[in-house]
């Protein structure tokens, strides 16, 4: 894409209300913009990153055998009455009345909706297991929104639901989801740890959070370096010794980037989601749910991957793979740059070509560092004398000269 046509206006200063580094950098680089407290607009660069994150998630969900669907944001009050959560879920629902004075709610989660879908279609043990997921807007009536995308009131969520004949079968899938989550976070440039967690108003006896260790994280966790035990302090309290191996525990600040739950039969019993087993007996379906907030994941990537100049996007989720910058306006430089731009596009390499007039080299480099595209390719008269371009990884300090005919191979 030509940068002169990109809908993006970078800023030297972050919004006054921004405290988290991800909020500051994503705002300055024009990926996001706050409209009201806890609600954000995703601008073209920001949406490109969200789309990349969604693509990473989709691959892993399909590998698990999950099928994608889309459930409504406006939810049926009667379903929430069935489970008793209409007035009890925390944070409380955003409720509204239509012109007929009928109450509905903006979905903060979709256990009721998905259970209603499944109970109409699953009749026999032969229909199970089944795995269904969506990526969709959620609305949480938070008391306090803070940290930019780290705590919002409207957000994009991947929620996967699984349905099983038994808890043993569900826990087997639970372990498979754990491994899929580790792969997702690794592709997003994050090293995740799992900790035992409170299930809150979602429910279930077993749940685990996936945490990214970060000094700016608002979650406090305890980690055992010897055996790998981890627990959210909300769940395990102020333990000093590991409950598994008695080794000393370390307290860390962290950011929650995923949460998985063994729901058991909490929803199926209340909503009559049953199946006929091999012996002809009716039993409630065992369920699990598994969530990742895409906006929070995007913010956490920035919290972990940045320097004093700006964002450092991992390859898998970067808005573009190459930032192409000519630093002189001679005919030779421009002609070579335009040919390389076309060659990169033909090679299906996403490239942002800084063709802007009236911008100094310093301004172009500052914007490139702020936006954080993984590979910066600079073309000048000096590099062309050697039939080369200068390539610099955003994650590295030093640049190197690469022959023109080796560029596409190098950035791949």
List the helices and strands and how they pair.
Blueprint: H1 21-28, E1 32-36, E2 39-42, H2 44-63, E3 67-68, E4 74-76, H3 77-83, E5 94-97, E6 103-106, H4 111-119, E7 130-139, E8 154-164, H5 167-187, E9 192-196, E10 206-213, E11 219-223, E12 230-232, H6 233-236, E13 250-264, H7 266-271, E14 274-276, E15 282-284, E16 286-293, H8 294-304, E17 306-307, E18 310-311, E19 322-326, H9 331-346, E20 351-353, H10 361-371, E21 375-379, H11 381-384, E22 388-393, E23 399-403, H12 407-411
Parallel strand pairs: 3-7, 19-20, 19-21
Antiparallel strand pairs: 1-2, 4-6, 5-6, 7-8, 8-16, 9-10, 10-13, 11-12, 11-13, 13-16, 14-15, 17-18, 21-22, 22-23
Helix pairs in contact: 1-8, 2-5, 2-8
Write a brief caption for the model:
The protein contains twelve helices and 23 strands.
Fold and architecture overview:
The protein has 412 residues and is an alpha+beta fold. The protein has 2 domains: 3-307, Bira Bifunctional Protein, Domain 2 (BirA Bifunctional Protein, domain 2); 320-411, Rossmann fold, CATH 3.40.50.800. Helices cover 30% and strands 29% of the residues. The protein has helices at 21-28, 44-63, 77-83, 111-119, 167-187, 233-236, 266-271, 294-304, 331-346, 361-371, 381-384, 407-411; strands spanning 32-36, 39-42, 67-68, 74-76, 94-97, 103-106, 130-139, 154-164, 192-196, 206-213, 219-223, 230-232, 250-264, 274-276, 282-284, 286-293, 306-307, 310-311, 322-326, 351-353, 375-379, 388-393, 399-403. The strands form 6 sheets. Strands 3, 7, 8, 9, 10, 11, 12, 13 and 16 form a 9-stranded mixed sheet that branches. A hairpin with a 5-residue loop joins strand 22 and strand 23 (399-403). Helix 1 (21-28) crosses helix 8 (294-304). The longest helix has 21 residues, at 167-187. It is elongated, with a radius of gyration of 24 Å. The mean pLDDT is 96.
């Amino acid at each position: 894409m030509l940068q002169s046509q990109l809908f993006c206006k970078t800023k030297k200063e972050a919004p006054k209300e921004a405290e988290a580094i991800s909020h500051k950098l994503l705002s300055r680089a024009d990926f996001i913009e706050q409209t009201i407290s806890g609600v954000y607009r995703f601008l073209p660069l920001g949406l490109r990153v969200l789309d990349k994150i969604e693509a990473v998630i989709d691959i892993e969900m399909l590998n698990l055998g999950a099928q994608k669907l889309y459930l409504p944001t406006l939810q049926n009050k009667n379903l929430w009455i069935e489970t008793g959560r209409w007035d009890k879920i925390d944070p409380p629902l955003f409720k509204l009345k239509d012109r007929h004075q009928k109450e509905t709610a903006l979905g903060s989660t979709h256990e009721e909706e998905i259970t209603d879908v499944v109970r109409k279609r699953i009749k026999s043990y032969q229909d199970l297991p089944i795995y269904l997921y969506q990526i969709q807007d959620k609305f949480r009536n938070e008391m306090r929104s803070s940290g930019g995308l780290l705590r919002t009131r409207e957000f994009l969520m991947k929620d996967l639901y699984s349905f099983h004949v038994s808890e043993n079968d569900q826990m087997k899938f639970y372990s498979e989801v754990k491994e899929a989550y580790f792969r997702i976070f690794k592709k997003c440039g994050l090293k995740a740890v799992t900790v035992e967690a409170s299930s809150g108003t979602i429910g279930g006896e077993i749940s685990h959070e996936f945490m990214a260790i970060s000094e700016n994280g608002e979650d406090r966790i305890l980690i055992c370096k010897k055996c790998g035990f981890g627990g959210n302090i909300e769940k395990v309290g102020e333990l000093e010794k590991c409950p598994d191996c008695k080794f000393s525990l370390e307290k860390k600040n962290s950011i929650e980037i995923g949460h998985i739950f063994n729901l058991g039969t909490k929803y199926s019993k209340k909503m009559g989601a049953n199946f006929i087993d091999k012996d002809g007996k009716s039993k409630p379906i065992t369920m699990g749910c598994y969530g990742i907030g895409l906006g929070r994941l995007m913010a956490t990537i920035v919290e972990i991957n940045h320097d004093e100049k700006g964002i450092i996007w991992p390859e898998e989720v970067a808005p573009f793979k190459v930032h192409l910058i000519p630093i002189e306006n001679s005919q030779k430089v421009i002609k070579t740059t335009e040919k390389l731009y076309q060659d990169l596009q033909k090679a299906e390499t996403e490239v942002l070509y800084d063709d802007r007039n009236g911008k100094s080299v310093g301004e172009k480099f500052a914007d490139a560092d702020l936006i954080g595209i993984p590979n910066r390719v600079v073309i000048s008269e000096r590099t062309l004398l050697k039939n080369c371009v200068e390539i610099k990884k955003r994650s590295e300090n030093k640049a190197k000269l690469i022959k023109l005919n080796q560029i596409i191979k190098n950035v791949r």
